[in-house]
Design goal:
single chain; mainly beta; 31-stranded antiparallel β-sheet; 13% helix; globular
């Protein structure tokens, strides 16, 4: 810890001591201490909830608005990971892609949920915790956390805090997600052990004649020991593997990278013809279509040790570790519009599109990822009279690395020192559309034969372009919470504390581009087949839609060629200078956050009032490479935030609670947006783009208003309704490594962009959820039940730049509608769940093609789960995700237009598990 940060910690400690003195003075007249039972109920140690009934009870008793997923809930889903499990809660949108190196369709084609937005706020506006530890954020360009890393096994409870009290981290505008693992004291028996075996099958892989098989093993062991069973140990391990092969249509990629779009009708200047809706005038002129196959292997575990020293003192240690190694290989047929023109229509001022030539290509890329996330905490709780002290130290580490991403292609028009290929002639429109909205290439026989025989018909281009990317964060610190419980009067307790967290962050990216194959070999005419790069084929590139073949690529052969022909000149991250290439995309950051808070709980009959305030001081120091100087430089950004809040809870009866709250929060910009020239890219035509950080960026601030009501019934019913409003200022949206909401300077072929804050925005939402078990029905029918939730939200934000043209737009990744419904049956050891999820359309990225936004279509998903408890030891579960094989992702350019599309078909996933408890 640096001297500066240590001084900040001491200042926070001094502030806490003064606050403790104020609390003591305020409550000095109330000398009596609570009973041991009362003190035990007031423990601040993280609590887990195994059953739905306990989860509902926890929601009712909470001082803030929360949603809880119990272990029972997790067992009754058919999901790949905890991100998808969170999607069953109200107000949660699960995204299966982001804006990092697996953004767009690359991420979506993996076929599982990755990130979540809460109440309209994107993933970087949330705090994610494991056992109360704020986890490291390993993503290279964002404060978001890739939740697909975590499986649904090994967790006992997920608590979603939709509002934040003063004792919680202040940088959570959306909410705080706390993943909780078991301890030995969560089990009634002295010892507990279980082993779970699973097997899985993915239907889309079977459509490609791949295996699609996977499976896993998980185990846990818990024991209480000691003379009075004062010690508890819990440990769990898991390993699982999935093999996938999914279909992808990458129309937006073709439009961005290869000019695969245009206007049907233009004016003489090539602009969209006035009087025709711009979105309706856009059309796809080329496309990429192919298969993304690979595997993900996840493993990790959780450890917990507890020591109840006596009735007043308890100590604990918690640790978690998760790792995911993903192999992703995408092979895409490319139908590229190489030459386009607009021909005058008669003597009018209209010009109609003509695609004159097509370049037939095949392109291969790998998208490997190694991701880890670990946490450790050591703490305790001491009760002394009316005081409860809860100190802890913690650490977390996370990384998201892409160690060896490689790309290669072959094309009909390959031109180099030895090859002189030419494009295929066409003329007229190049794309039509079928009844389902899929773009259909209007090819000639020659074009079809090129695509169908791309391993032999197309000329090999380069011996590869390889990129390595590494991103990690180490986060650690300590905190102390202190609570004074009053006895009598309106004041129930005063709670205060401080927390110091320091994070170290490093991001780096380097690139090598080899020369053309022919130039390295000294002769032309080579194809992927002749070079041995092609190794078999998929007979249908997108079964059921596009039925020409696509080659399978032998990655090891391609890597061997790359390494064989790699030279010093291949190293070209951002130009020709070695030092620049090595350092230009490297950035290091140090962030120290010092926080202190005070809050109180007053009771006036049935009314509970909790005022509070939190202060957070953040200091971020960035180190980055400056190409013009040829050296590293640095800058520092500081934020000071005072975050007041007040929470009201009215409990007229034991089965009802009504809540109202006003609370403030904020989110600090990502490191890469604050640092200097952190990202540089050079296109094939020599254009260099420098994305330059802005240390003067403001934090995004929010004032949050929440209302909620919650009820339970003696007949197994539970209902909740809530309303929320978030007033935002200084908005920044997520766009990965690019700063589209920034100012831009142009000098020759060098473009420099710098991020800027946007303007104001707001989120307004309504939520409702209900669950009813029909226990009053006779006999076997009493096992039936219904549950469901729905969210309606409205978002608007001023992007504050030319991007928005002064217009306000919906917020990113915030559907207007979200809904879940379930019919379930629980009786005679059986459990059946038919789950339906709906996610409305939402805006994913701003101004991507022709200044038009990218939207994602509404998605529907039906899941099925069936379980049977054979006896006290054996339980069998079968789950089927996406039972009806709905498309998992469909993005399109324009809210109303479906001309330029990205589509992913991941099929159905079946999972069978057998669990043995003893």
């Amino acid at each position: 810890m640096t001297k500066r940060n240590f001084k900040q910690g001491l200042m926070a400690s001094a502030l806490t001591v003064m606050t403790l003195g104020m609390a003591w003075t305020a409550a000095h007249a109330q000398d009596a201490a609570p009973s041991d039972t009362e003190a035990a109920d007031q423990s601040t140690v993280v609590v887990v909830y195994a059953t739905r009934d306990k989860a509902i009870n926890a929601q009712m008793k909470a001082i803030n608005t929360i949603s809880v997923l119990s272990k029972d809930d997790l067992d009754h889903t058919a999901v790949h990971n905890v991100a998808e499990a969170l999607g069953t809660l109200p107000g949660v949108n699960v995204m299966n892609t982001g804006n990092s190196f697996f953004g767009g369709i690359d991420g979506a084609s993996r076929g599982e949920g990755m990130f979540v937005s809460l109440r309209g706020m994107n993933s970087e506006y949330n705090v994610n915790m494991i056992n109360g530890v704020t986890v490291a954020q390993g993503m290279p360009y964002s404060r978001g956390v890739q939740l697909s890393l975590l499986p649904p096994s090994g967790l006992q409870t997920i608590v979603l805090n939709l509002t934040s009290t003063a004792d919680m981290d202040g940088d959570a505008i959306g909410g705080t997600v706390d993943f909780r693992t078991p301890t030995a004291f969560n089990f009634s028996d002295k010892t507990h052990a279980s082993v779970t075996l699973s097997g899985r099958l993915e239907s889309r892989a079977r459509d490609y004649d791949d295996s699609g098989l996977g499976g896993g093993i998980a185990g846990e062991y818990a024991i209480k020991f000691g003379q009075n069973e004062q010690f508890g140990f819990y440990g769990s391990l898991f390993y699982d593997e999935r093999a996938y092969a999914n279909s992808e249509l990458a129309g937006i990629m073709a439009a961005q990278n290869d000019g695969g779009w245009d206007y049907l009708v233009t004016d003489v200047n090539g602009k969209s013809y006035a009087g025709i809706d711009k979105e309706a005038n856009m059309v796809q002129t080329g496309l990429n279509v192919g298969v993304s196959n690979g595997s993900t292997k996840r493993w990790g575990g959780n450890l917990s040790f507890d020591w109840n020293v006596d009735d007043t003192l308890s100590l604990y240690a918690r640790a978690s570790y998760a790792r995911a190694d993903t192999e992703q290989n995408s092979t895409l047929s490319q139908f590229a519009s190489a030459s386009k023109s607009h021909k005058q229509v008669g003597t009018t001022d209209r010009y109609a599109l003509s695609v004159d030539q097509i370049s037939t290509r095949v392109w291969y890329e790998t998208n490997p990822e190694v991701a880890t996330l670990s946490t450790f905490t050591l703490g305790g709780e001491k009760r002394a009279g009316a005081w409860t002290l809860s100190p802890s130290v913690f650490m977390s580490y996370g990384n998201n690395d892409r160690p060896d991403h490689i790309e290669a292609s072959a094309r009909i028009n390959q031109s180099d020192n030895y090859n002189h290929g030419v494009n295929r002639p066409l003329g007229g429109l190049s794309i039509g559309y079928d009844n389902n909205g899929f773009p259909i290439p209007l090819y000639t026989t020659d074009i079809y034969n090129d695509l169908n025989n791309s391993d032999t018909a197309l000329l090999a281009r380069r011996s590869g372009q390889l990129t390595e990317s590494f991103s990690n964060q180490t986060k650690g610190g300590f905190k102390l919470d202190a609570r004074y419980d009053a006895d009598g009067g309106a004041l129930q307790y005063i709670k205060t504390g401080f927390k110091f967290t320091e994070s170290l962050r490093r991001v780096t990216n380097r690139d090598w581009t080899n020369a053309h194959f022919a130039n390295s070999l000294g002769h032309g005419g080579e194809t992927w087949a002749s070079l041995g790069i092609a190794d078999g084929e998929y007979s249908s590139v997108f079964p059921g839609v596009y039925n020409w073949a696509v080659p399978k690529v032998n990655e090891s052969v391609l890597l061997n060629y790359f390494n064989k022909f790699k030279t010093d000149a291949s190293f070209d991250t951002c130009g020709g200078d070695y030092a620049n290439n090595y350092n230009c995309n490297t950035q290091k950051g140090n962030e120290a956050v010092t926080a202190a808070y005070v809050m109180a709980d007053y009771s006036f009959g049935s009314l509970e009032v909790l005022p509070g305030a939190r202060y957070e001081h953040s200091q971020i120091h960035n180190t980055y490479w400056v190409q013009g100087k040829g050296q590293f430089d640095s800058n520092t950004t500081t934020y000071d935030k005072v975050l007041p809040s007040v929470f009201l809870n009215y409990r007229p009866a034991g089965n009802a609670v009504y809540r109202a709250s006003i609370w403030t929060s904020y989110t600090r910009p990502p490191f890469t947006q604050l640092g200097g020239g952190a990202q540089t890219s050079t296109s094939e035509d020599g254009t260099t783009t420098i994305t330059k950080g802005n240390p003067d960026l403001k934090a995004i601030d929010a004032v949050n208003y929440d209302l909620a009501a919650e009820w339970t019934t003696s007949a197994g019913g539970h209902a909740q309704i809530s309303a929320y409003y978030k007033a935002l200022s200084n908005y920044i949206f997520d766009n990965g490594s690019n700063y589209l909401n920034g100012t831009e300077a142009v000098e020759g072929k060098v473009y420099t962009t710098m991020p800027q804050n946007g303007g104001d925005g707001h989120v307004t939402g309504l939520e409702a959820q209900i669950r009813q078990k029909f226990t009053t029905l006779p006999g076997w029918m009493s096992g039936f039940g219904l549950s469901g939730n729905a969210t309606r939200q409205w978002t608007i934000v001023d992007l504050g730049s030319d991007l928005g043209s002064g217009q306000k737009k919906p917020m990113q990744n915030a559907p207007e509608w979200l809904a879940n419904a379930s019919i379930f049956y629980e009786k005679y050891g059986m459990s059946l769940d038919l789950n339906y999820g709906y996610k409305g359309a939402y805006l994913a990225n701003y101004a991507v093609i022709g200044g038009v936004d990218v939207w994602v279509k509404p998605t529907r998903r039906v899941d099925l789960h069936a379980g049977y408890k054979v006896n006290d030891h054996v339980k069998i579960d079968l789950s089927v995700a996406n039972l009806l094989k709905d498309y998992s992702y469909w993005a399109h350019v324009g809210k109303r237009s479906f001309a330029i599309n990205d589509i992913v078909d991941t099929g159905r996933t079946t999972l069978l598990t057998v669990k043995y408890d003893y």
